[in-house]
Amino acid sequence: MNFMSAMEEMYRKIGISAEAIRLGEKAEKACAAHFAEIDRIAEYNQIKVLNAFRECRVGEAWFAPSTGYGYNDLGRDGLEELYAHVFGTEDALVRAQLVSGTHALSIALSGNLRPGDEILSPVGKPYDTLDEVIGIRPQRGSLAEYGVTYRQVDLLPDGSFDFDGIREALNSRTRLVEIQRSKGYSARHTLSVAEIGKLIAFIKDIRPDVICMVDNCYGEFVEITEPTDVGADMIVGSLIKNPGGGLAPIGGYIAGTEECVANAAYRLTAPGLGKELGASLGVTRQLLQGLFLAPAVTASAEKAAVFAAQIYQDLGFHVVPRAEETRHDIIQSVDLMTPEALSAFCLGIQAAAPVDSFVTPEPWDMPGYDDPVIMAAGAFVSGASIELSADGPMRPPYTAFFQGGLTFSSAKAGVLMSVQKLIDASIIKG
Ligand SMILES: *Cc1c(COP(=O)(O)O)cnc(C)c1O
């Protein structure tokens, strides 16, 4: 038996037909040059991370867990030094006690703002979960309740920055500018690090004292530079996305100037306590190993997104971004056009997951959403979107947002399985 027929036989065992494999072969060939580019970026970032591990002298003693107050936790302090090194910042806060990306963003904001200050978002509305943190939607404990106001300048219709609008919006109360790197689940494009650099330079030129904070979620290691290389005072993200490398079981990070990080730490624990407290409870080794793997895992996820874009654009679906476009995050969207197709897509992603492959995703009424949402995820870490996952609201154009993939081969199987489910439902022809 030659290798190709052995491969087909193996795919057949998980229910993927020769037709789907052939569509995949064609798509993967078309992606070759793009994949090579992604691998080069991963190589650069891998050496960047390895260099930080060497220079920070990471040692086995760092793996020891601490309990209670967690004073003098060598590994926790070392991990934070490592993050600061990788992101080129003065300091970092990297904690299991930052329970999610939203929590890290909330701590970064509330730690660095005082009553009377104003936040400016110059890139349109921030990520949904920040609505209640900031108080765009009223919520108990929001920044609005503490007298922090919010202003927003939308991107221009062509997606560029509204520099005139931003200049007008900056005022004597503006204390912090919040720049979201990834489009998340909104319609705008994801910002490149270069674009973020231009925006920060413009703002600092008018107001050098304003804090430029970047929501870095989904963007880490996709390029060879990070927002802190182009002037950001503080970047914030989730460890169950890119920088956790799929191994972090929980956590968030804030990296930036000593002052920004200290302000955040005083808010996370207590004024006067700051970074000195916070037991690592034994997760340090996973956070270290996850950071070490992060460049490769991010590259796998990005290749999976490019591959999905290629196969679905070849099938005639509208995808964002298109396969050939340069990427700045790991999110892919595919407009599936009918509820049946969106359900079949999610069924395929779920069926190729290593965990809960036997589960059928059903649309449900998620709190805070107007339409039922369907989700596919079979992850080792609950809710980890660096692992292959997809979700979409049940409304036209029935868009699936797709991200993650711990290995390219497993994510490719997920994409092929989604194509197979569309073939099985006679939505597309094999
Ligand atoms: C994921 C994400 C967040 C935070 O989400 P959590 O689910 O709370 O971790 C914030 N901003 C963006 C752009 C994100 O992608």
Explain what the structure shows.
By secondary structure, the chain is an alpha/beta fold. The protein has 2 domains: 176 residues, Methioning gamme-lyase, C-terminal domain (Aspartate Aminotransferase, domain 1), CATH 3.90.1150.60; 229 residues, Aspartate Aminotransferase, domain 2, CATH 3.40.640.10. Helices cover 40% and strands 13% of the residues. It contains 12 helices and 12 strands. The strands form 2 sheets. A 7-stranded mixed sheet has the order 1-7-6-5-4-2-3, sandwiched between helices. Strands 8-9-12-11-10 form a 5-stranded antiparallel sheet, with helices on one face. Helix 2 crosses helix 12 and helix 3 packs across helix 4. The radius of gyration is 22 Å and the shape is globular. The two termini are 25 Å apart. 49% of the residues are buried. The structure holds pyridoxal-5'-phosphate. The site of pyridoxal-5'-phosphate has 12 residues, from helix 5.
Features:
binds pyridoxal-5'-phosphate; 12 helices; Aspartate Aminotransferase, domain 1; alpha/beta; 430 residues; Aspartate Aminotransferase, domain 2
Q: How do the helices and strands follow one another from N- to C-terminus?
A: HHHHEHEHEHEHEEEHHEEHEEEH
Shape: globular
What can be said about the biggest beta sheet?
7 strands, mixed
Number of strands: 12
Low-pLDDT stretches? none
- The CATH topology assignment of the largest domain is Aspartate Aminotransferase, domain 2
On the 0 to 100 scale, the average pLDDT is 97
Class from helix and strand fractions: alpha/beta
Ligand types: pyridoxal-5'-phosphate
- The appropriate CATH architecture of the largest domain is 3-Layer(aba) Sandwich
How many structural domains are formed by the residues?
Answer: 2
**Terminal CA distance:** 25 Å
CA radius of gyration: 22 Å
Please give the CATH class of the largest domain: Alpha Beta
Strand content: 5-15%
Number of DSSP helices?
12
